[in-house]
Amino acid sequence: MADSARDPAPGEHHFTVSAEDAGQRLDLAVSRALGVSRTKAATWIAQQRVTVNGMAARASLALEPTHEVRVEVPVPEGRDVVAEQIPLHVVYEDDDLVVIDKPAGMVVHPAPGHWSGTLVNALLGRGGALSDTAGDDRPGLVHRLDKETSGLLVVAKHDAAHRSLSHALAQRTITRRYAALCWGHLDGDTVTVDKPLARDPRDRRRMAVVANGKAARTDFHRLARFDAVDLLRAHLHSGRTHQIRVHLQSIGHPVVGDDTYGGGGGRRLVALPPERHFLHAALLAFRHPMTGAALEFRAPLPTELRTSLVAVSRMSELATDEDPLARFGFYDPPVGAPGRAVD
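Request: output the structure for the sequence above.
Response:
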């Protein structure tokens, strides 16, 4: 029987069923392909860490030729999250919390395939207390941002602050505004997308609009219309994984540069570098968890997004503007009627 020292590396593994292996049970095929015990393979299948053609399946499934099997190998129990000396842009800090402006390309917390270089590794490297409410592998984290999404997030230093901030998040009293470029043009200046989200049943690495998914609502307000794209302000009413990206895809206007959800083409047209989408958490506002004082933080566009905005707007003066988003009214309170709902 294979033990953890001999298991494959944590992360995603995949294989295609050959004609010779047709009819073989899924648990046996996973056991042989990854060199683990059949019991362990069956456990991963029961935990829905194994998919066949993107769908969860039973251990007894008889495989067919060309079936694509994907296995998410979990991290062995007891693996420590290592502190690393990684520079962070700290926007604000006191005894209760710290607000970080996360760069694109940084994963927020350790997970299969990303056990180092994450925001959590960097937070631990700074030293000092962090709440443990979210678990040992996510100390201090109240909410998250996607890897290629830049911008603001708040981290709790102790459990009381974490509980208060989590409650505020659940009660939707934390304001989170994102700047986004989307392909094409919205039907109106204000659009509300209210569609439930869940894991894509055909590809567990993606999210999708699913009838029995979790409720998710995003308000979009167009700040500017350019030749091929719109500049949007997105306001989250819920915090589902990939919410803004999936909601925009669902109405036919994916985020510019988003390879996962259909917006990855035309990078030269918008002067956007590879593996970067135009989505930035530019404003974060909430009541201090201990004092109740009103706090508001802003994160100007990072260089690569500023360059892209200059290219699509043809406004060269934005290159030296202290905060180009302010010029387009990003920080102004919403005006006019509520967004048009899109079912």
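The helical segments are 26-34, 38-46, 119-126, 159-170, 243-250, 267-270, 303-313, 324-327.
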